[in-house]
Design a protein that fits this description.
mainly alpha, single chain, 0% strand, 30% helix
C-alpha cells in the first residue's frame, strides 16, 4: 500500500482495497446505509481470496477462469 499514489487515483485504490478486505462492514447485510448492502454474506472477499487474491490455488483474482464471480454463485 505504500506505493499507492496520492490524490484521487490513490483514494480509489485504497477504497477498493478496503472493500475487499472489509467487505462485510462496508457492503454486508447489516450496513446502516441500505443502499450499500450489496451482499447477504458475513464474509469478506479476502476470507476466500487468500493473500489479497494473489495466492496461487487460493482463489486468485488474476490469471483465473474468466466469467465466474461471487455474484454468480448462489452461496453469496
Amino acid at each position: 500500500m505504500q506505493d499507492i499514489p496520492q490524490g484521487a487515483q490513490g483514494d480509489r485504490i485504497r477504497y477498493g482495497a478496503l472493500l475487499l478486505s472489509d467487505t462485510y462492514a462496508q457492503l454486508g447485510p447489516d450496513v446502516k446505509n441500505s443502499k450499500m448492502r450489496y451482499t447477504g454474506s458475513t464474509l469478506n472477499c479476502t476470507s476466500c481470496h487468500l493473500d489479497g487474491g494473489t495466492k496461487q490455488f487460493g482463489l486468485p483474482w488474476m490469471g483465473g477462469e474468466q466469467g465466474l464471480s461471487a455474484i454468480q454463485c448462489s452461496r453469496w
